[in-house]
Amino acid sequence: MKVLVTGGLGFIGSHTVVELQKEGYQVVIIDNLSNSSIEVLDGIVAITGKKPIFEQLDLRDKTKVQGFFKQHQDIKGVIHFAASKAVGESVKKPLLYYENNINTLVYVLQELEKLEIANFIFSSSCTVYGQAEKMPITESAPVQKAESPYGNTKQIGEEIIQDTCKINPKVQAIALRYFNPIGAHQSVKIGELPIGVPQNLIPYITQTAGGIREQLSVFGDDYPTPDGTCIRDYIHVVDVAIAHVIALQRLLATKNEINFEVFNLGTGTGSSVLEVIESFERVSGEKLNYKIVARREGDVISAFADTQKANKYLGWKTELTLDDAMLSAWKWQQSLNKD
Ligand code: UD1
């Protein structure tokens, strides 16, 4: 059964391709390599022994998108990761983000509508909740005005899909709202490849311990949390990847209750920045050089998922721990340092 994974060479995309291939799906990857590397394909082959079909294609090119779908009319599902994801960059280049994340989504959905079977999984984010009033965050928590163009593209993206599903019952879609995906595949053949200075906590930690960065700045220790640092729900990327396969299977088996469903992907447990550092030090045996600095603008105090809906309807829950994720991220960093 043929499945298209857009952005399939990216961080979450590549791990999802591995899990799809393990389940026997024939995977076609579209990626424009704007924030990924062709070597990731070798990593996928090394893990699974199978080479996915790969098309280097920019989804902003509508004619090429149409041509691609004409060639692959037997696609039974689309998992759509391809998007830009840097919050700070999105503030500086909003139109690039709207073009990359919205135009491409529209083009893919337009082609999907023409297929016999139109199953669609969308990468959304817990960023749609902003600072939620109640923890843990359920899917029915109100969506709040986005803080950045990036966050806005996720909200608008969900709305576009919902509107499409409303008038076209053939389109079956699930939006997965990720909390903080981290870690790397246990084989250490694929992982996160941040370009330039990492903005996210875990690659910054591993690069600091790996000698690439001098020191980690912990953004604020005066938040109203037990140790004063922000709380997030860090989830192993392999657990995230497996959830995508299960969500797709739900659509393929027509087990979905409505044609647009939304699920949180998190562990259900919040960890503070200092707890993440402790976990890293425990599993790596390294002492991390860090200092407390001022808060980062735009950070929410706390965000962790209520996972009951995903547990119940997807029959999925996370298997891997924060320690597992930190160890895999560290091993991945060490493997990159060897290159
Ligand atoms: C960020 C984005 C979010 C995006 C997600 C995944 C913002 C405001 N949010 O989430 O929209 O979906 O990445 O890419 O950018 N921290 C430090 N020092 C660092 C880096 C981070 O202390 O050098 C802290 C942050 O203050 C935060 C936590 O670590 O409390 C996690 O930060 P990060 O990994 O950037 O993720 P989010 O901010 O949750």
Give a quick rundown of the structure.
Helices cover 40% and strands 19% of the residues.
How far apart are the termini?
36 Å
CATH class of the largest domain: Alpha Beta
Q: How many domains in all? A: 2
Kindly report the name of the CATH homologous superfamily of the largest domain: NAD(P)-binding Rossmann-like Domain
* Distinct small molecules bound, one entry per kind: uridine-diphosphate-N-acetylglucosamine
Q: What is the gyration radius calculated from CA atoms?
A: 19 Å
Strand content: 15-25%
Architecture of the largest domain, according to CATH? 3-Layer(aba) Sandwich
What does this structure look like?
The structure is a single chain. The protein has 339 residues and is α/β, with parallel strands linked by helices. Helix 7 runs parallel beside helix 9 and helix 7 crosses helix 11. The chain is built from eleven helices and 14 strands. It folds into two domains: 213 residues, Rossmann fold (3-Layer(aba) Sandwich), CATH 3.40.50.720; 102 residues, UDP-galactose 4-epimerase, domain 1, CATH 3.90.25.10. Uridine-diphosphate-N-acetylglucosamine binds next to helix 7 and strand 8.
Summary keywords:
7-stranded parallel β-sheet, 11 helices, Rossmann fold, binds uridine-diphosphate-N-acetylglucosamine, 3-stranded mixed β-sheet, 339 residues, UDP-galactose 4-epimerase, domain 1, single chain, 14 strands
Write the layout of secondary structure elements.
Layout: E1 2-6, H1 11-22, E2 26-31, H2 39-48, E3 53-56, H3 62-71, E4 75-80, H4 87-92, H5 94-112, E5 118-125, H6 149-167, E6 171-178, E7 180-182, H7 201-209, E8 216-219, E9 231-232, E10 234-236, H8 237-252, E11 260-265, E12 271-272, H9 273-284, E13 290-293, E14 302-303, H10 308-314, H11 322-338
The structure holds uridine-diphosphate-N-acetylglucosamine (UD1).
Uridine-diphosphate-N-acetylglucosamine (UD1) binds next to helix 7 and strand 8.
